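The pair is quoted verbatim below.
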Amino acid sequence: MFLKDQIPYWFAITGYVALAALATGLLPTIFPQLKWYYVLVIYIIAPPLAFCNAYGCGLTDWSLASTYGKLAIFLIGAWAGSAHGGIIAGLAACGVMMNIVSTASDLTQDFKTGYLTLASPRSMFISQVIGTAMGCVISPCVFWIFYKAFKDFGVEKSAYPVPYATIYRSMARVGVEGFSSLPKNCLNLCYGFFAAAIVINGIRDLAGKKRARFIPIPMAMAIPFYIGSYFAIDMCLGSLILFLWERVNKAKADAFAPAVASGLICGEGIWSLPSSVIALAGVKPPICMKFLSRATNERVDAFLNPGS
């Protein structure tokens, strides 16, 4: 059934050309810095990159859409230049490129599932279109709720610091202004830690499994630098629970740990929406907790109780 009910090539090509024309005409009205010929160039060079990403994702189950998006940042950002809004143009181009490239790998994985389950590819494609249309409405609404509910949305050290926004903006700035926009000694630090990561990974591979578990993973060490260390206690508690669970029943821990982790992630993600609605309504919490250092706490006590 899967092989008989395929989508015609002419339909795929026509749809891509139609979407390219639509994006070329509409995106410059949303982002004036992103000229129509920038969008056209992206849609011309995107198909081979999308094929490479889909092929690589099929082999490794790892999509590199963000990497191709960064390529668009540097390409379009440098082309536009700082005088013509190169940062905005580069970031918008990144979004266009990532959507094209990631869609190819996502559809490949979905069609593989359809092939294994003997589902109709046309039905799957229609479902994808419906889901995409829903996302075009739901995603802006969710962003608007967060943006209106939290006044410090996107600000560093807030509840939602949006760390990747800062990272991608910095990359766009480098693409427009060059390495001179980086802080002093930034490249030297990059070179040093790049070499250190290679050395550490090499040592881990040569040390064997028993010794390698005591050697830190550079990628895991890099994550707090991206999103901050505020989740360290959460990670510690989760790791401790998993460690104890494996001690008690390793078979069940290996089987159900991913399901438990997925439930916790989904639960927190879903709760963020009611939390945003409550904040948008201006509801104040009945109590507030704050942890202070001993010295600060003594100063607060002295201020509240001057006679004691």
